[in-house]
Write a structure and sequence with these properties.
225 residues; mainly alpha; 85% helix
């Protein structure tokens, strides 16, 4: 137990580190760019982490517990899903779709005492969860293989995955709260600056999505197999 506990704690720390991967940061930036409160931003991070944790635990757990092997083409296809999602989020951000979703959700509840979830709106909750699920699907195989090389006991391996997931929740909540700061500051100073920052996140999302499509489809030869 003395050697297992540090490994489990390492899983939590690696989960926090995992939340800062570039594709995760860019994806949540497009969502948080319209959020004006730190509590709302933290909730978005928690929802992303929850969606990510569910898929990491289910898919990664199945790989660990039953020794499943995910074919390389399937793994690349799941990673391609992240690239496509980044393209969609970028396009929605640049077209103003995310802004309209945000205004509808917040406009209806701007002066009420409803919960944060209610004010974020069903679309906002579903969007944050879905983004986390897609990222979790893409990373589940790699995380499971990492667990298998670190912890051999299935029970401890599952606990490792759960703590890894909690780490991603904590890491993403911290990250989204920090990301909300410049957007909240911009909103107080200039509407034009807010729009510029929102467009910048959209462009970044499109650029990274296009790069990943090329990397996965052409370099990794998903489209050529």
């Amino acid at each position: 137990m003395g050697t297992v506990f540090p490994l489990l704690m390492l899983g939590f720390v690696l989960g926090m580190r995992h939340a800062t991967d570039p594709d995760h940061v860019v994806a949540v930036s497009t969502i948080v760019s319209r959020e004006r409160t730190f509590r709302g931003a933290a909730l978005i991070g928690a929802l992303w982490g929850l969606g990510h944790t569910v898929t990491i635990t289910l898919v990664g757990g199945a790989i660990v517990a039953f020794g499943l092997v995910i074919p390389r083409k399937v793994e690349l296809s799941m990673e391609l899903g992240v690239a496509v999602m980044l393209l969609v989020l970028g396009a929605m951000s640049l077209s103003g779709t995310l802004r309209r979703f945000h205004e509808i959700a917040h406009g209806e509840h701007a002066h009420d005492e409803r919960s944060l979830v209610a004010r974020l709106g069903k679309a906002g909750v579903a969007r944050a969860l879905l983004v986390g699920v897609v990222h979790g699907m893409a990373g589940s195989a790699a995380v499971a293989l990492l667990v298998l090389t670190t912890v051999r006991d299935v029970t401890f391996a599952m606990l490792y995955l759960a703590l890894f997931g909690l780490g991603t929740v904590a890491g993403m909540m911290t990250l989204t709260t920090l990301l909300a700061a410049p957007f909240a500051l911009a909103a107080r100073r200039s509407g034009e600056l807010t729009a510029w920052l929102s467009r910048a996140t959209g462009v970044a999302s499109l650029a990274l999505g296009a790069y990943l499509v090329y990397e996965i489809g052409v370099v990794e030869r998903l489209f050529g197999r």
